Amino acid sequence: MRGWMSAVLAAGALAVSVVAVPAPASAEGTRPPVTRGPCGYTATPEEPAARPVPLPPDPPRTPDRGTVATSLWTDYGRIPMRLDRSLAPCTVQSHLHLTLSGFYHHTICHRLTAYPTLSVLQCGDPSGTGEGGPGYRYKDELPTDLPPAPTDPTGVRKLYKRGTLAMANAGPDTNGSQFFLVYKDSALRPNYTIFGTVDPAGMAVLDRIAAAGIAPTPEDPAPVDGAPARPVRIRLATAFF
């Protein structure tokens, strides 16, 4: 994500909308900080953090076994999730870092979609605009074994099953803090890192959120993509090891 950029939110795409600003003059000609471990979390001074947070820990060997239980405590109820280190070690490492740092506390889930082939709730931006992130990026850990989406005869789009937890991004290797939860089977290009699942109790909460619908606008009284009709506030994000 270099220079000025805006990733458009569209059906079939789970993007982070980015409006970058120039780096401070003192930073010109210098390389942004990068962690030394295998994940290589890279600071993005041109895209400052929506909420101050340091770069994640990046040990010589990223934990890549086991799962971690996490929860989003929302106005609709608790959404328990299970992060899978074997699927995406660097992503889980980053998400836990943001969770434990309080990055997700008192934030909103800014986007709900209800397309026939894309049904997700997107969260993780403290600014609530869809443009915010943690002030760093890191590489993709893309799935390689997803089945073709039944709705796509070309086989290009893959099946992101109901209950999938995955990262939104603004292009290759631009993961940050925004993530999405799939509440109905969806068809997407396999360009989004999957790093866990939503537990059944969390799916019941997601279903209630989806049933409340999407906020209408003067331009679109019956939208299929936009802010949830009733705000979805994450009061607290927790992790249990």
Automatic annotation (TrEMBL):
It comes from the Bacteria. Gene3D superfamilies: Cyclophilin-like (2.40.100.10). One of its GO terms (molecular function) is peptidyl-prolyl cis-trans isomerase activity. Residues 1-27 form the signal peptide. Residues 25-66 are annotated as: Disordered. Residues 77-239 form the PPIase cyclophilin-type domain. Keywords: Isomerase, Signal. Residues 51-60 have a biased composition (Pro residues). Pfam families: Pro_isomerase (PF00160). Transmembrane segments: none annotated. InterPro entries: Cyclophilin-like_dom_sf, Cyclophilin-type_PPIase_dom, Cyclophilin_A-like. SUPFAM superfamilies: Cyclophilin-like (SSF50891). PPIases accelerate the folding of proteins. It catalyzes the cis-trans isomerization of proline imidic peptide bonds in oligopeptides. This is Peptidyl-prolyl cis-trans isomerase. It comes from Virgisporangium aliadipatigenens. The gene is ppiB_2.
